[in-house]
Amino acid sequence: MLVAGACNRAGDPEETETSAAPVQGLTANSPVQLTSVGPVVVGMTLDQVAAAAGVDMTRQPDYDQAVAEKNCAYVSPSTIPGYSPPPESGNKSPLAFMIVDGKLARIDILGGDFATDQGIKVGSAESAVTEAYGGGSPLPPRAFIGPPYRYLTASPRDTEDQGFKMVFESDGAKVVNYRVGKEPEVEYRQGCTP
Questions:
Q1: Does the N-terminal peptide bond of residue 85 adopt cis geometry, omega within 30 degrees of 0?
Q2: What is the pLDDT of residue 185?
Q3: DSSP designation for 78
Q4: Among positive and negative, which fits the CA dihedral 34, 138, 188, 57?
Q5: Mean pLDDT in each 10-residue stretch from start to end of the chain (194 residues)?
Q6: What pLDDT is attached to residue 159?
């Protein structure tokens, strides 16, 4: 279970677009919440994602085929202001957006300094995840263990946030990636495959 108030939904996509605060777009230090990274919010259409991010999106190579066969495919920001990919990344984006039924269902955080409101990011110790979201237990409820990773799932307490989760993937010592979004897609272990 998440600590009460630890992760708040960023709001509905319509509210994000019409808010009075200026939207800066996606940056290398955009915060990650239960349903968003920076201004990009679960439930947005692909066009809304691109507009909110303020950067071009790159579709996975077989995007059209994946949409036709599974109604699910990924896009990633082509660039992110302030982010320089490490040489070993192969210049890959640290974020991937799962589009299902034409809307953003899940956000995968694969690297960079994108952190939750509890300071968890790729590279954080697994123990930090359990301390932040597991109430001090060795593993939070619904920890899935399977080669080669451990899956630690944080669920919200607030009724309004039911149906959304954070899933942290650990190598047993540290977070190697994590994702936020709606169920059931946020719990898929292999991209669009349940």
A1: no
A2: 97
A3: S
A4: positive
A5: 40 45 79 96 97 95 93 95 81 92 97 94 94 63 65 84 92 93 93 89
A6: 82
Judge contact between 177 and 156, C-beta under 8 A.
no
Distance, in Å, from the CA atom of 37 to the CA atom of 25, rounded to the nearest integer, reads 10
pLDDT computed for residue 30 by the predictor: 96
Amino acid at 186: V
Q: Give the sheet arrangement for strand 32-33, strand by strand.
A: 32-33, 36-37, 40-41
Q: Which two tokens stand for residue 144?
A: 């899935």
Q: Would you put residue 103 in left (φ > 0), alpha (ψ -120 to 50) or beta?
A: beta
Query: Which pLDDT does position 140 carry in this prediction?
Result: 52
Residue with tokens 């439930």: 43
CATH architecture observed for domain 13-18+26-81+92-187 = Sandwich (2.60)
Amino acid identity of residue 149, one-letter, is: Y
pLDDT of residue 145: 61
- The full 3-state SS of 92-151, as one line of letters, equals CCCEEEEEECCEEEEEEECCCCCCECCCCCCCCEHHHHHHHHCCCCCCCCCCEEECCEEE
Closest CA to 96 of 82, 114, 84, 81: 114
Record the tokens describing residue 106, joined without a space. Answer: 């899940």
